[in-house]
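Action item from last meeting closed. Structure (754 res):
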């Protein structure tokens, strides 16, 4: 007969045995959580059984989160990103020492018991009752695997993680039932393999392969006995036994594991003693997670790829669904990034602009006819330190960029395209005086008109006093004549220009509406380098606009299965006729041959492009193309505070910065390297006959189809001349709150000569 305690009760061990007789499963659960309060055992028994029966029949095992690898177009690795650094490997790729070490220290009777170790339960329960606390647990490796699965399913949700690890009866019941299921379905070897792949080893390493790489810079299959013992010892408390931060505690724990392996007969005592005397032998590698680790300055492109994935419904109907797939990882993403073009872009940027300069530069290259982004770089590196940033200066705000920058005169070719497409001859001539008032009224969309204040007309000027007409379109484009282009837009109306811009994918970087005012011709609406590069690719592809794309293909690995995911494709549409595109190309070829962009021209192949410099020189641009590549270079202060006057950029002193002087050479060197070895292709040029300069629409006085200011007027609303933009006529449209971009005297002169 069993002995009773005084008062007629059973001993703690006898109580546990009786409880197990009623419900072996629930009793094992309670033993696993090691409750010190013995009286709680009997009270919970009936409910435990019912809860057990109500559980789902099978454990929903989520795919293990793994690292995602981002590749360039040729298969070279750009970066690895992950929610949890893990590489799943088979048991054959895990050292036998490692397998024995984890079993010896975590569940020495693993191969003798089933899902539940009843002998271990009784031992642990008795020990814990005697100590009135939790001195020993009794979870098997299988039960620990179930708990880790729950933690994996919880992801980064702290509430779900807490629920997955809380010391409650309900959790232990679920853990037990699913452990039985796994034992029946998988068997011991597969369970051990899964456990070694899922468990956390500290230092951001999940799974034994990642841990082996983290601590020893080797594969898990190559671990020796002492290395295996070290890793196995970490599992119990990754922070306490972290060998990187506390080698003393880690060594003690490793030696405990080695001795346990000897006691189990996995190794001899002599082997254990010898291994105990060896140093830890760490050869740690730094965790490499995220776009900050990207090579060739492609951190911002890497970030752009992530934004594409998280914002495109093709990868999931909701933001949460897309984020779950991204965090799960296991993706191999092949991108459009051309390693040669990227290297050339970064080399040119480094040569011409220092990261410590007061201003920055951003450059992007795209492929005409496909929309593929070939390069994306900037002078301020990806990071968190001084002279570093996480803002991608090349892209729109919605994709991780800033609010954009006024493109200045690089917008003029869009006006030219709208005019030519609408029937304006390419040899159209205007008086184009040095100074004039904005024409008013000017037609806008929906049959409305933009009107200036007749009592205080807004004026604009060209770059130099000597710059006055009459000019034809070709000469005005080459010299970047502001007054010509404002006269042109007043003739054709603003709506055709905004419609053409939309067809070419040109939009404000901040997502706002394009303002309809004559000064749009001078580039007063803030845009990103990617937008401008892709717009000019429309000219290079003879009128075909293709939406930008960054991803070629994605392969997803789930367990041992691989599948391809559908990826966004570029959508190509005709934005203008071939003749219009070829005509604009002819105009822009003249810019680099004998206009403001001569320092940007390529020597070994045809090129075309346009300079741009904004009022007060807050930004300078060169955007250009060859038949097979289009690129944009912006230089300026992202905060729109530092004017580029009397400034050192890349070690070169500049009294004034022009689009052709700083961005132009960056573009030239970038494109030269990117195109090295590529076929030399020719443009399809058109003949633009000389115009009769005696003809014109008005004399440029009193607003007769003439007159503009410096091109730096926001929507034509401020005085961009000598008064610094201090007068504000009554507009017929509202001014966006962020239109001034931090400038103190107007919108900046989008149309300076460059």
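Sequence:
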């Amino acid at each position: 007969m069993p002995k009773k305690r005084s008062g007629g009760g059973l001993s703690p061990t006898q109580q546990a045995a009786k409880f197990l007789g009623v419900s072996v499963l629930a009793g094992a659960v309670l033993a696993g959580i090691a409750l010190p309060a013995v009286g709680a055992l009997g009270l919970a028994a009936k409910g435990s059984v019912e809860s057990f029966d109500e559980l789902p029949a099978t454990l929903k095992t989520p795919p293990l989160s793994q690292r995602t690898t981002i590749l360039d177009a040729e298969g070279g690795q750009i970066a690895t990103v992950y929610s949890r650094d893990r590489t799943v490997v088979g048991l054959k790729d895990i050292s036998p020492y490692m397998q024995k070490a984890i079993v010896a220290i975590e569940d020495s009777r693993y191969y003798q018991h089933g899902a539940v170790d009843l002998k271990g339960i009784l031992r642990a329960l008795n020990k814990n009752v005697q100590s009135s606390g939790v001195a020993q647990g009794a979870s098997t490796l299988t039960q620990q695997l179930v708990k880790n699965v729950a933690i994996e399913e919880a992801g980064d949700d702290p509430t779900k993680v807490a629920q997955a690890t809380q010391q409650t009866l309900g959790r232990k019941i679920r853990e037990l039932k699913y452990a039985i299921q796994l034992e029946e379905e998988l068997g011991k070897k597969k369970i051990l393999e899964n456990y070694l792949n899922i468990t956390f080893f500290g230092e951001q390493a999940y799974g034994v392969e990642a841990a082996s790489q983290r601590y020893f810079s080797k594969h898990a299959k190559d671990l020796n006995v002492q290395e295996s013992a070290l890793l196995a010892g970490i599992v119990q408390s990754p922070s306490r036994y972290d060998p990187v931060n506390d080698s003393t505690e880690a060594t003690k724990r490793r030696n405990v594991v080695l001795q346990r392996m000897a006691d189990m007969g996995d190794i001899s005592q002599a082997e254990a003693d010898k291994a105990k005397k060896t140093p830890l032998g760490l050869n740690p590698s730094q965790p490499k997670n995220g776009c900050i680790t990207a090579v060739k300055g492609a951190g911002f492109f890497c970030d752009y790829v992530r934004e594409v994935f998280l914002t495109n419904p093709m990868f999931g109907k909701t933001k949460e669904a897309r984020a779950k797939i991204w965090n799960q990882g296991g993706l191999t993403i092949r991108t459009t990034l051309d390693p040669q073009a990227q290297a050339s872009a970064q080399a040119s940027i480094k040569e011409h602009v220092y990261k410590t300069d007061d201003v920055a530069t951003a450059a992007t290259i795209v492929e005409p006819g496909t929309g593929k982004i070939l390069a994306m770089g900037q002078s301020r590196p990806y990071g968190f330190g001084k002279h570093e940033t996480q803002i991608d200066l090349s892209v729109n705000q919605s994709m991780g960029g800033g609010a954009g920058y006024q493109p200045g005169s690089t917008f003029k070719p869009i006006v030219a395209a709208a005019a030519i497409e609408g029937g304006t001859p390419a040899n159209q001539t205007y008086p184009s005086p040095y100074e004039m008032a904005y024409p008013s009224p000017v037609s806008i969309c929906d049959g409305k008109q933009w009107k200036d204040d007749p009592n205080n007309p807004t004026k604009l000027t060209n770059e130099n006093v000597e710059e006055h007409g009459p000019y034809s379109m070709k000469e005005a484009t080459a010299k970047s004549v502001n007054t010509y282009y404002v006269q042109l837009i007043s003739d054709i109306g603003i709506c055709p220009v905004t419609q053409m811009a939309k067809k070419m994918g040109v939009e404000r970087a901040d997502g706002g509406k394009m303002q309809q005012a004559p000064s749009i011709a001078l580039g007063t609406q803030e845009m990103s380098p990617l937008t401008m590069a892709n717009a000019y690719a429309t000219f290079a592809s003879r009128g075909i606009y293709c939406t930008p794309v960054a991803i070629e293909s994605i392969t997803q690995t789930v367990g041992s299965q691989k599948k391809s995911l559908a990826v966004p494709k570029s959508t190509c549409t005709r934005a203008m006729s071939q003749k219009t595109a070829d005509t604009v190309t002819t105009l822009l070829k003249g810019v680099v041959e004998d206009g403001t962009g001569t320092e940007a021209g390529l020597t070994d192949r045809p090129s075309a492009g346009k300079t741009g410099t904004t009022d007060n020189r807050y930004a300078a641009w060169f955007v250009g193309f060859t038949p097979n590549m289009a690129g944009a270079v912006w230089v300026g202060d992202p905060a729109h505070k530092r004017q580029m006057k009397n400034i050192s950029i890349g070690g070169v002193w500049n009294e004034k910065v022009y689009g052709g002087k700083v961005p132009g050479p960056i573009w030239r060197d970038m494109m030269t390297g990117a195109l090295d070895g590529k076929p030399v292709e020719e443009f399809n040029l058109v003949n633009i006959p000389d115009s009769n300069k005696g003809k014109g629409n008005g004399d440029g006085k009193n607003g007769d189809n003439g007159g503009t200011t410096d091109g730096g007027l926001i929507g034509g609303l401020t005085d961009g001349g000598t008064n610094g933009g201090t007068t504000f006529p009554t507009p017929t449209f509202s001014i966006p709150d962020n239109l001034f971009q931090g400038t103190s005297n107007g919108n900046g002169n989008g149309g300076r000569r460059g």
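Note appended to the action item: The chain has 23 helices and 20 strands.
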